[in-house]
């Protein structure tokens, strides 16, 4: 079996590529000319240079039976709005059309719980929930919602496609890093004197990779599956990191208005004078909501693993500690 993978240089994608190779797949990875290839070093794969909006993607997929469309532009900066829609929405439309033309037999599309939204007052939600798009915070979440609608349209037009919605993965190969990876890095560098009162759903990134493969093998076409594990407050997450590392966890919360004011000045005012903003306004807005999810459907229908979150955090700590130069 030969798989075509987009987003293979990223966090979820590189873990998926490794799993596919372990399971005997031949793997072809679409990479941008600007992509760092560190996560794919020494792997027995074929790389194709291009991007999601190329016109020749159907030719590039020839010889592949399945597509894992993992790639997405992730940014919480409001200045990224145009690129978010170009890559996430139009890019998804283009590559799924190309997959249809190329005769790809089955597609796993990586959406996000960001596209689903959140429940009221921190209530965990499942795949049946959908927040109105105007209630999704920021253009990243909105772009993932509209990209998922492109996947639904492609399914309706005859493409055999399954949607997976990862929550917050943690583990190794978080190269950029992700916002949660950034929290771990800041914790390791003793740059987290305070924390915000928020919560999220976390899952071992290796389980997310397995969720993709299990969705390919067992998922109902047209369905979506939340790939998640444990709902946890940020405070509890930091306390777990403290137990793993021996470093003290921050003990005091910070009022919402302080990071919001800093972010607004950073992104709206100081950036006009050439300062690189450090805190996105949309990121602070998201922290007001507890982002809790129920992954029962993926666990029961796909057999999604629920590996230890403590071990996943340990993997992340070890990886970041060993790759601080990256």
From TrEMBL:
It holds the Pfam family Epimerase. Residues 4-228 form the NAD-dependent epimerase/dehydratase domain. GO terms for cellular component: cytoplasm. NCBIfam families: HpnA. This is Hopanoid-associated sugar epimerase. GO terms for molecular function: aldehyde dehydrogenase (NAD+) activity. InterPro entries: Epimerase_deHydtase, Hopanoid-assoc_sugar_epimerase, NAD(P)-bd_dom_sf, NAD(P)-dependent_oxidoreduct. It comes from the Bacteria. Coiled coil: none annotated.
